[in-house]
Amino acid sequence: MKLHYKLFSPVIALTACLTLLSSSTQAADKDIVDTAVANGNFTILAKALTAADLVGALKADGPYTVFAPTDEAFKRLPKGTLEALLKPENKPQLINILTYHVVKGKVDGATAVGLKEASALNGEKIKIAFKNAALNLNNSRVTATDIQATNGIIHVIDNVLIPKKTVAPIAQAAKTPKTKEGVCLAIFDEAVDTGVDLFNAGDTKACASIYKIAVMAVLEIKPKRLGKEEVNALREALKTTAKSDDTSQNAWTLRKAINKAYRGLNK
């Protein structure tokens, strides 16, 4: 399953994909691992690096470029995938995935924009494209660039990069029959993917319409895991936007309700 994240805090932010952040000029005083840990949004990544015994490697001199998925990005993997990957017997698959997020050398955002691909440490290629005001890596978007570390640089991404060689835990999770919750998450996935591109292109009206359709569809499906608070937030968003002609604000209002519902469906 692919919900393309667009958030770097507890709340998904539309602005995450509007523009790339400018390069940091602040001198780095921590290595890649310590910088990620200090940030607070990469606790799952840190846990995964520890499970894969890669912490030492990313504390080495480097330099390295790391495309770091946030905690929310990891949570978008199919249900049960993360837990399976963290098991000792799946360590080779975990290493394969994590090293697919690391490129040897220091590639800043300005340089990455001009590239078509990058060679990851696991030996596979990462496709790079700059479109709709966002830097894209495969099916993931870069939401922040140029976080400096003493041994390299970190770029934040909204979705975990999956190598072409399918790993067992992910393949198994993908075969799990879809529940109502799964269907609703998929609806939100597609709405977010399409809506963000439209918003970035300046078509806020179409973006708001896509979000509205997604909200109405989920309310119609009535997944059991969606609590009263989340349902009320979705309904209130529909009422609020029905009274407003500000399509940009409407997109934000609906998106916030979607974010809340998405978290509820993932409980």
Describe the protein's architecture and organization.
With 267 residues, the chain is of the alpha+beta class. The protein folds into two domains: 14-174, FAS1 domain, CATH 2.30.180; 180-265. 45% of the residues lie in helices and 15% in strands. The protein has helices at residues 32-39, 43-51, 71-75, 81-85, 91-99, 109-112, 168-174, 180-200, 204-221, 228-242, 247-265, and strands at residues 64-69, 102-104, 117-119, 125-131, 134-137, 140-149, 152-157. It has a seven-stranded mixed β-sheet with strand order 2-1-7-6-5-4-3. Helix 8 (180-200) packs antiparallel against helix 9. The model is unreliable at 1-25 (pLDDT under 50).
Compact summary:
The chain has 267 residues and is α+β, with helices and mostly antiparallel strands. Helices cover 45% and strands 15% of the residues.
Draw up the topology in text.
Layout (H helix, E strand, L loop, with lengths): L31 H8 L3 H9 L12 E6 L1 H5 L5 H5 L5 H9 L2 E3 L4 H4 L4 E3 L5 E7 L2 E4 L2 E10 L2 E6 L10 H7 L5 H21 L3 H18 L6 H15 L4 H19 L2
- Number of helical segments? 11
Topology pattern, helix = H, strand = E: HHEHHHEHEEEEEHHHHH
Mean pLDDT: 81
- CATH level-four homologous superfamily name of the largest domain: FAS1 domain
Largest sheet: 7 strands, mixed
* Helix share bin: 40-55%
Main sheet strand line-up = 2-1-7-6-5-4-3
Q: Domains counted in the coordinates: how many?
A: 2
CATH architecture of the largest domain: Roll
The N- to C-terminal Cα distance equals 16 Å
- Low-confidence segments, given as residue ranges, are 1-25
The count of strands amounts to 7
Shape: globular
